[in-house]
């Protein structure tokens, strides 16, 4: 029996084709599941109600503020923040269960190795070879209010890494990937503009994009993921280029 309780927080909108896989992966380990939905028009809310009664319909203030709202509803000792397009693999679900069963937990937060899965392949290199901070002690934690690429600031203490993979089914198909990349680039441009960051011109935008591709494909060995690794390196490069072009245009009032 778990000695530490776990709140799972999830924000959704039109995720009917993916959210059940996510919820199934956490159902056995969670003491409570909290869902904030921002206007789904498909069966997302209905599916979520199969796993929890704590489903709230809200407006959309941005990723950081929405996740902070979900965190504010959590009541357990620990919080796992998961997205609808993610799922714990069996190894990670067991590692999490074992961790919560320990009398004392060494760290105040844990990183979860990402297993980005798209176009039929789980990527092991490039930008996908990352661990994201998603598991943390509830007391003293808070989210940054960023529109996109928000981060959680955990309570003071050390950070560990959980075994297994947080599978991330990031794209439904290539078209969805393009739409998502465009959205993130524009939100990133607005975020940088709000924070007063400068673009330093379009040439630097191109150089940043080129460096992003080189860093992901060569330095982080994205080429070992084959053709999908190449597609992802190009996608991240394009996102970085579009983000700084957007910032340049905002700076010049265009």
UniProtKB/TrEMBL annotation:
Domain of life of the source: Bacteria
Residue intervals of the Glycosyltransferase 2-like domain: 7-131
Residues spanning the membrane: none
Pfam family, one: Glycos_transf_2
Family annotation (InterPro entries): Glyco_trans_2-like, Nucleotide-diphossugar_trans
Database matches in Gene3D superfamilies: Spore Coat Polysaccharide Biosynthesis Protein SpsA, Chain A
Family of this protein: Belongs to the glycosyltransferase 2 family. WaaE/KdtX subfamily.
Protein name, as recorded: Glycosyltransferase family 2 protein
Species per Swiss-Prot/TrEMBL record: Motilimonas cestriensis
């Amino acid at each position: 029996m778990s000695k530490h309780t776990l709140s799972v927080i999830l924000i959704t909108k039109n995720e009917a084709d993916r959210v059940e896989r996510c919820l199934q992966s956490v159902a056995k380990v969670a003491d409570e599941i909290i869902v904030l939905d921002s206007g789904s028009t498909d069966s997302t809310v209905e599916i979520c109600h199969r796993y929890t009664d704590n489903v709230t319909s809200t407006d959309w203030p941005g990723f950081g503020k929405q996740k902070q709202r979900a965190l504010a509803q959590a009541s357990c000792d620990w919080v796992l923040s998961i997205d609808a397009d993610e799922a714990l693999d069996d190894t990670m679900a067991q590692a999490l269960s074992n961790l919560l069963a320990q009398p004392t937990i060494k760290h105040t937060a844990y990183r979860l190795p990402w297993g980005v899965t798209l176009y039929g392949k789980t990527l092991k290199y490039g930008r996908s070879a990352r661990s994201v901070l998603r598991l943390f002690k509830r007391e003293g934690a808070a989210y940054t209010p960023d529109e996109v690429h928000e981060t959680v600031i955990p309570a003071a203490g050390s950070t560990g890494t959980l075994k297994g993979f947080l599978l991330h089914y990031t794209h439904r198909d290539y078209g969805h990937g393009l739409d998502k990349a465009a959205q993130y680039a524009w939100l990133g441009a607005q975020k940088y503009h709000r924070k007063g960051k400068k673009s330093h011109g379009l040439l630097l935008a191109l150089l940043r994009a080129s460096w992003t591709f080189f860093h992901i494909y060569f330095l982080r060995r994205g080429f070992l993921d084959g053709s999908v690794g190449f597609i992802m390196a190009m996608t991240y490069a394009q996102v970085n280029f579009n983000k700084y072009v957007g910032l340049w245009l905002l700076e010049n009032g265009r």
